[in-house]
Amino acid sequence: VVMDEYFATQDTAGSDTVQMWIDHLSAMLHASNAAFGSHPDGYTREQMAAALDMTPDALSAAVHEDRFPVRAPRFKLLQRAQHAFSEALRVVKFRQICESGDTRLNYCTALGDLMNCSQDSCRDLFECSCPEIDELCALARRAGSFGSRLTGAGWGGCTVHLVSRDKVESVKQVLVSEYYAKKFPNMTAAELDNALFATAPGCGACYYE
């Protein structure tokens, strides 16, 4: 919504959709740095309210803190904006790479780099990763994964790894021996199979008319 409003007056007729998204998201990253870069440590509730010409109580009411309480002394607007826009930019670039047809490109490396940057951003900017997820990703990368990141909302959960077919078993073995065997020594083989498995990418969801 913010980006739509920011570019509401721009004529995009005839523009390449993917490149337009890349240009817009890059501009939003620059704009967020300009808007929030003066407070790299975050804003207090009082500072945010003053910037919006509101009282702190009015701000709390406007964001429904009675229903969704926020327990934080400072609000990291710069980091959260950087993550949101850069994550969307990575998604668009991922699509661009997949659709490029560039025979000179190492697709796995290029896509893996985007996945790794996504994980780093989730950890450092959005702070929705956790030590366990970080460890799993680091182990997988060292074992040969092109890219590793959390998947889902974060704060725990699952990881996904981009691995060539010839390295699937070796990456799995490293994760079992260096993580699961140490942290969950009583897991059965069946439980490990449910926790750690390989799958192949497929086409996305679609519908027929």
Radius of gyration (Å): 21 Å
Distance between the termini: 29 Å
User: How do the SSEs run, as a string of H and E?
Assistant: HHHHHHHEEHH
Q: For the largest beta sheet, what order do the strands appear in spatially?
A: 1-2
Number of helices: 9
Structural class: mainly alpha
Please outline the major beta sheet.
2 strands, antiparallel
Instruction: Please tally the β strands and state the result.
Output: 2
Walk me through what this model shows.
This protein has nine helices and two strands; from the N terminus they run H-H-H-H-H-H-H-E-E-H-H. It is 56% helix and 5% strand. Helix 2 runs antiparallel to helix 5 and helix 5 packs antiparallel against helix 6. A two-stranded antiparallel ribbon has the order 1-2. The protein is globular. With 209 residues, it is mainly α. The mean pLDDT is 94. The protein starts with a helix and ends in a 14-residue tail after the last helix.
